[in-house]
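Box S1 | Example of a co-folding query
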Amino acid sequence: MNDLPQQIDVLIIGAGAAGLMCAAVAGQRGRSVLVLDHANKVGKKILMSGGGRCNFTNMYTSPENFYSENPHFCKSALARYTQWDFIALVEKHGIPYHEKTLGQLFCDNKSKDIVDLLLAECRAAKAQIRTRCSIESVQPQDTGYLVETSLGTVRCKSLVIATGGLSIPTMGATGFGYDVARQFGLRIVPTRAALVPFTQHKRQLQRQQDLPGSALPVTASCGEGSFHEQMLFTHRGLSGPAVLQVSSHWREGEAVSFDLAPDRDLAEWLAQQRTEKPDAHLHTVLCGLWSKKLVHHFLTDKGIESRPLKQFSSPELAEIGAKLQTWELVPAGTEGYRTAEVTLGGVDTDAISSRTMECKTHPGLYFIGEVLDVTGWLGGYNFQWAWSSAHAAGEVV
Ligand code: FDA
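Box S1 (continued) | Returned holo structure for dihydroflavine-adenine dinucleotide
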């Protein structure tokens, strides 16, 4: 039995951030729209995002906040549907929000507010949405596409792939979008988990056994990436915004360097402390920077004995400062797609129009959102890419 309309203008596969946004924009232009998703409900990643409060955009979004083999690709869509456009939509729906830090905008209440916004926009656009629908095949027709699903067969003029990346398979993530791209001869830029915690080797974890839960501001650097944010020790390794951000630059076997006191030169600071408080113990002075646990760990780990500052010579203090300032680490690995917020890589943007998201070689076939080789930093940028790329396609499908 065919439970779906047999013919539709726009068929969107994936009822996540990008798919729902595209449905609303296309529907409001008068196109008949159907959105299909295999999950039991729509927008699951939105619901779990931002610790349940959805960091829905970033006030400082610019193309520099995105990784892609073609860093210019994202510019057009981001310029034509900006963070301010999405903020205006949030305000139109009366959703209370706040800036947490670094331009990151979060819902005051729940992420569900954003899903409700998208569903209200889809209703206004008369877009139909079906969940629990598996896609069996996609075939090109003379004009448009024929899609066979577990709920029946649909013909569409425009087919939009909005199935996201590989992160968090338990939330419904699949490689479907990449398979469709390959079917049509498109290249996939190799994918890897990003915005993901690091795991550490057993021996290192034993040395850090008192630290899980401890956090400190650091500058984490790897390759060309350098991020000044919090780092968190966990039972399996390292997490926190600085670590998640730098993970997008990390390749297996590479070292990551952490400046543990990014706001000061520790050698100079210790010399100054010695002048001001010559009788104070090194560990007491360091407790002005880090928690007791961290100070104890850093001193023990680097084999530094705590004494009153006046007992250290200037070269000794300079050496201690340098030792404590930097920590170099080769992570054992990452937590992988199981917990990664995003997937780096994806459908090669060379084959896609940056203005419309349409495939250059297959008219009527569109790719939007995370399935493309466009990946944002941590901080609301990935949702902004979903909104902007979806809007670009929604205006033309
Ligand atoms: P998205 O993944 O949202 O949607 C894809 C949809 O396609 C899903 O509904 C899925 O079920 C469906 N689908 C997949 N395969 C299918 C198939 N074979 N058949 C049918 N349907 C299929 N970003 C941000 O900017 N701010 C934040 O606060 C966070 N927080 C966050 C937390 C966590 C835990 C994660 C995992 C991710 C984030 N992100 C984030 C990233 C953000 O969630 C992500 O980049 C966007 O949801 C991508 O939107 P898309 O619509 O492209 O994919």
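The chain has a mean pLDDT of 97. The longest helix spans residues 381-394.
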